[in-house]
């Protein structure tokens, strides 16, 4: 009798394990083509970037924002569900390359270096760069001399700081999250930070002691969705992005999150 019970439990455990495996396989990050409808795609993002993606603790702590709405719209059209994984910005491309994410939506700019590692969709939004500071004596790039400038690790803003360093000396600090840069500016450990316009405005609204000015000689930086190389999702997303631009959905989302009519 004892032995029989034991066998039963053993059996149940094995069954439970098998069922568990099935669920994991369904979870995406393993997109191999064919009919994927109803499956879950894993979206990786870095939710330190309002209004693109941020966590509003007052609203349940879920990641929300422009990118989340864009992703949900496209996923719905394509018959996918989405699960969001929040991580540091510098972990996003590795997440794609290691199969932990099916795509990245994080206000990410498609540049040559990244294109070696991942594929990008068409661009869906473009931004300019600003210098944000609490220090009223910093009014131009020249005033950064000898100061400490913050940038997000692995971002294109990091590259902008390198360019500025060619002409003058200042310290560069790199942080995983834009929210850390804001905190450190408020506590005077960082004098200024390079942040893109829409994101900077969100932080300026909430932190009245901060101000900003345009970073000169920079091109508009677009945002695009990143995918594993040769993913069949790239084309599917591009088709939906095109439709969103044509039928006014994109304009509506831009107005909702950036407060501007295009
Ligand atoms: N557009 C910049 C880049 O691609 C910054 C993006 C930062 N995004 C974020 N979710 N923190 O490097």
From TrEMBL:
Give the InterPro entries listed for this entry: Iontro_rcpt_C (IPR001320), SBP_3_CS (IPR018313), Solute-binding_3/MltF_N (IPR001638)
Gene3D superfamilies for the chain: Periplasmic binding protein-like II (3.40.190.10)
Compartments in which it is found: Cell envelope
Q: Does the keyword S-adenosyl-L-methionine apply?
A: no
**Keyword annotations:** Signal
Annotated ranges, domain Solute-binding protein family 3/N-terminal: 40-261
What protein does this entry describe?
A: Polar amino acid transport system substrate-binding protein
């Amino acid at each position: 009798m004892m032995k029989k019970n034991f066998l039963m439990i053993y059996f149940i455990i094995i069954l439970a394990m098998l069922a568990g495996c099935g669920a994991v396989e369904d979870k995406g990050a393993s997109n191999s083509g064919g009919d994927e409808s109803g499956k879950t795609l894993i979206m990786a993002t870095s939710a330190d970037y309002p209004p693109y993606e941020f966590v509003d603790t007052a609203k349940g702590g879920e990641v929300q924002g422009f990118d989340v709405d864009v992703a949900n719209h496209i996923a719905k059209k394509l018959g996918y569900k989405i699960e969001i994984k929040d991580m540091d910005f510098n972990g996003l491309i590795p997440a794609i390359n290691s199969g932990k994410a099916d795509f990245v939506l994080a206000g990410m700019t498609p540049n040559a270096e990244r294109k070696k590692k991942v594929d990008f969709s068409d661009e869906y939004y473009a931004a300019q760069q600003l210098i944000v500071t609490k220090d009223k004596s910093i009014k131009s790039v020249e005033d950064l001399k000898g100061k400490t400038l913050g940038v997000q690790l692995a971002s294109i803003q990091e590259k902008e700081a390198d360019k500025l360093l060619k002409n003058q000396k200042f310290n560069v600090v790199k942080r995983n999250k834009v929210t850390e840069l804001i905190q450190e500016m408020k506590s005077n450990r960082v004098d200024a930070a390079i942040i893109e316009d829409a994101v900077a405005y969100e932080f300026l609204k909430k932190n009245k002691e901060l101000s900003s000015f345009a970073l000169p000689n920079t091109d508009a930086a677009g945002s695009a969705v990143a995918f594993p190389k040769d993913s069949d999702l790239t084309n599917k997303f591009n088709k939906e992005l095109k439709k969103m631009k044509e039928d006014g959905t994109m304009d509506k989302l831009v107005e909702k999150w950036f407060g501007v009519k295009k």
